[in-house]
Design a protein that fits this description.
elongated; mainly alpha
């Protein structure tokens, strides 16, 4: 018995329709899977960022605590540099303890010279004019129109963080904060800049901003 042509045509159309639904469903399912995978990757990336931020915050807190203990001990003994100022300077000078000078010599503040006969040679970067002659062995890097040279210098090597903080207090008392018992960190920061501790015109503002941001004044109490 022959199947009517209209029936065949309907079956073909239904078959094509079913195929379209099948293919469309596959594409939808594939897109859903891709979206799930992308969301999972994005979530994992966000979690890695969060974990890295937590680890960095923990490292910074631990560094601040490492400097705070001897800073408070030296303040109680000498009453020269407030702990908040010491910690803020340590953060700024050593980049939260990441500097090679700190890691190799406990030289938190970049003090040159020797300490009880102990020192370390470390290269410091300086910018000079393009026609400046440099000695043999000096590293030279061109940064556009600027000429940066790395000059070896002798820095103090300390046996401990406490020794570095204590020596820092002595240096500051002799040259920058010549009054004892100054209990305002704003005043001490201003005195450091005014008396030439750093050439940065925003040095005092930077120290004060760090103290406020990380609540370092709590160590003064």
């Amino acid at each position: 018995m022959k199947t009517p042509k209209g029936t065949i045509a309907k079956r073909v159309i239904l078959g094509l329709f079913a195929l379209v639904i099948l293919v469309g469903g596959y594409n939808v399912a594939k897109q859903v899977r891709n979206n799930i995978r992308e969301n999972a990757i994005e979530k994992a990336d966000k979690q890695r960022i969060i974990d890295a931020q937590k680890a960095d915050a923990k490292r910074r807190h631990e560094f601040a605590e490492t400097i705070a203990k001897p800073a408070m001990q030296v303040w109680k003994k000498e009453h020269v540099v407030l702990p908040s100022i010491v910690i803020a300077q340590a953060i700024q000078e050593s980049n939260w303890g990441q500097s090679k000078l700190y890691q190799k010599a406990y030289n938190i503040f970049g003090v040159k010279g020797t300490y009880k006969g102990q020192s370390i040679i470390y290269y410091t970067d300086e910018y000079v004019s393009k026609d400046t002659k440099v000695a043999k062995g000096v590293k030279v890097v061109m940064e556009g129109d600027k000429k940066k040279i790395s000059v070896p210098a002798t820095f103090r090597k300390y046996p401990s963080v406490y020794a570095a903080v204590e020596n820092h207090s002595t240096v500051v008392a002799l040259n920058f904060i010549k009054k004892k018992n100054v209990t305002s960190y704003e005043e001490q920061a201003t005195m450091l800049q005014k008396n030439g501790y750093a050439t940065d015109p925003n040095y005092a503002k930077s120290l004060i901003a760090l103290i406020k941001q990380y609540d370092l004044a709590k160590y003064d109490k």
